[in-house]
Specification:
alpha/beta; six-stranded mixed β-sheet; two-stranded parallel ribbon; 24% strand
Length: 182
Amino acid sequence: MTRATGYIGAVIATKLQAAGHIVVGLARSEASAASLQDRNASRAINRGEQMAKKLVNPERLYDGTPFGMSQAVLDTESSLVFVSGQVDWDRQYQVSQNSVSGQFEAALENLRTALVAAGASVDSLLHLRLYVRGELEDHMESLAPILAKFLGSSRPAVTGIGVASLASKATLVEVEAVAKAD
């Protein structure tokens, strides 16, 4: 089940619904989202197509198949790239760093790998969401310079969230993103 808000949320919700996901809590009217979904479905039917997406799974990153996921998905109609949460995992699902800042740097490099494989870049990031185990404020002093250096002049929307758990007990940081393919 996915919760979507705002116009972008409604657009994303429409894509998720088309893929069979259950979406709740649209902030704009559900009728407008349904109308958008109907229009998009009609366009696809008129063209005789299903939603066009490309699954992106770079060799350098861990295999997401056991989890039923791809590292990123490119919507070939809109050129939007949705990058799954990237963590500091190698191909054997092991972390390489034991600190929040070390794992953050590794997760950002994995994010860069997924973006490039999808035909996007750090400069084309639209939104980045950062999950940190524990209280986010406790880590901002060390994470902010790392993020600023990684993003450069890109300046996407960024959301930081402190969480109780992530992909494994050893995982301290996760980063997901939306970008536009170049």
